[in-house]
Write a structure and sequence with these properties.
The complex is a heterodimer of chains A (about 250) and B (about 130). Chain A is an all-alpha fold and about 250 residues long. Chain A folds into two domains: about 1-80, no CATH class; about 100-254, no CATH class. Chain A is about 80% helix and about 0% strand. Chain A is built from twelve helices and no strands. Chain A has helices spanning about 1-10, 15-35, 40-60, 75-80, 80-90, 100-130, 135-145, 150-160, 160-185, 195-205, 210-220, 225-254. Chain A starts with a helix and ends with a helix. Chain B has two domains: about 1-80, no CATH class; about 90-130. Chain B is built from six helices and no strands. Chain B has helices at about 1-25, 35-50, 60-70, 70-80, 85-90, 90-125. In chain B, helix 1 packs across helix 2 (about 35-50) and helix 1 packs across helix 3 (about 60-70). Chain B starts with a helix and ends with a helix. The chains are: A mainly alpha (about 250), B mainly alpha (about 130). Chain A: Keywords: Membrane, Transmembrane, Transmembrane helix.
Chain lengths: ~250, ~130
């Protein structure tokens, strides 16, 4: 009986249940990363936990919507759906100052464009080499190579399957996690030891969590410089990839 | 009020998405072309315009927007948990190759672009 009541609670309070579940995932992820003194990796770990849960749910239900296919977790589909995702992403642009954009100046702008273009190009080449031929799918995977937001934003806009959107998120997560891990080791080689280089690095890599984590592990003083340019990549990528990026890819593959 | 912050972001989202879908219609793509990007740009322009005019947002309005942006990572976690990961793993090499190579490519470009800016700085010093 208690189980039935519990189940009915999850069914009638779906979105609230989703808030609780995600809070629990964040708590566990930040707890784990805090225990190994790598708290800045918390968000990356939480995303991985989310992907793992989606994998398990997919194996159990055989469905294509991860946790949302399990009846009592259907609310997660609303919380993680494109409506709230786009709403919250847009809000992150708040606090960005046009002066700061100008202050980053030429290095910032060049690195932003070069970062989006090179990631997009590499992602597209990988997608084509591994057998993808549909322009929308190639663009989505290439978007994922820019950041784990640009991929799904692109994929949703171009109407590709959830499978390809998941791939693009995975590509972005690989980038984010790898950035956090390798940055402190590669920093001396690429002369990442001054604010200008940090701004260039932020624009080139683009994943805000990866950049903030990677710079924190290298030199905490560099974090705001890198994060400043990195925050523009997702917005600019979300603008350029589904529009110009898609047109270029469609021009080549149609 | 905090809800004003929500309202402002909502307005930017609707205008941005309108532009995105309008462009989508024009170029014959189903759906939204860069709507989120346009909305972000609009939010930056609007907030900077008010700052310039010396009219700072009410603290509570600002808190509403900050609260929304704090939800961004949790929402992304929720988004990750509803993806078709089983299918993604079937072609997982794409994700690892695309994400990994893009990271390495970006890192290798850092010294090249940094160098370009050092030259720019030196030019400016020469002028002085």
């Amino acid at each position: 009986m208690a189980i039935d009541i519990l189940k009915s609670l999850f069914l009638s309070y779906g979105l609230v249940g989703a808030f609780g579940l995600i809070a629990l995932i964040m708590l566990i992820s930040y707890g784990l990363t805090g225990a190994i003194k790598q708290k800045r990796m918390g968000s990356a770990v939480a995303i991985i936990v989310g992907l793992v849960l989606a994998y398990i749910a997919g194996k159990i239900t055989g469905g294509s919507k991860g946790l949302a296919d399990i009846e009592i977790f259907a609310g997660v589909g609303l919380l993680g759906g494109s409506m709230l995702r786009d709403f919250t992403i847009i809000s992150t642009a708040y606090g960005v100052k046009i002066e700061n954009l100008k202050k980053a100046g030429l290095p910032g702008i060049v690195s932003l464009i070069a970062g989006i273009f090179s990631s997009f190009l590499i992602g597209a080449v990988v997608a084509v080499l591994l057998g993808y031929r549909d322009a929308a799918e190639i663009t989505t995977i290439a978007g994922g190579a820019v950041t784990f937001i640009v991929g799904p934003v692109t994929g949703t806009a171009l109407g590709v399957s959830s499978e390809v959107i998941a791939l693009s998120i995975a590509a972005g997560v690989v980038k984010s996690v790898l950035t956090m891990i390798v940055t402190p080791f590669i920093a001396p080689i690429i002369k990442l030891d001054n604010p200008t280089a940090a701004m260039v690095y932020g624009g080139l890599i683009g994943t805000t969590s990866g950049v903030a984590g990677g710079l924190a592990a290298t030199d905490t003083k560099l974090v705001p410089y890198g994060a400043m340019t990195a925050t523009f990549v997702t917005g600019l990528g979300s603008l350029l990839v589904p529009s110009i990026g898609f047109l270029i890819i469609r021009g080549i593959f149609n | 009020m905090e809800i004003y912050g929500f309202g402002l972001v909502a307005l930017c989202m609707f205008i941005g998405s309108f532009i995105g879908r309008f462009i989508g219609d024009i170029i014959g793509v189903q759906g939204d072309v860069g709507g989120v990007g346009f909305a972000m740009l609009l939010l930056v322009l609007v907030t900077n315009y008010f700052e310039k005019k010396g009219k700072h947002f009410d603290e509570k309005t600002s808190k509403g927007i900050v609260f929304l942006s704090a939800l961004y990572i949790p929402v992304v976690v929720a988004m990750a948990s509803i993806q078709n990961v089983v299918a993604a793993f079937a072609g997982g090499l794409v994700a690892f190759a695309a994400g990994g190579l893009a990271t390495i490519g970006g890192l290798l470009l850092v010294p090249i672009i940094s160098k370009l800016t050092v030259k720019e700085d030196m030019k400016m010093e020469d002028k002085k």
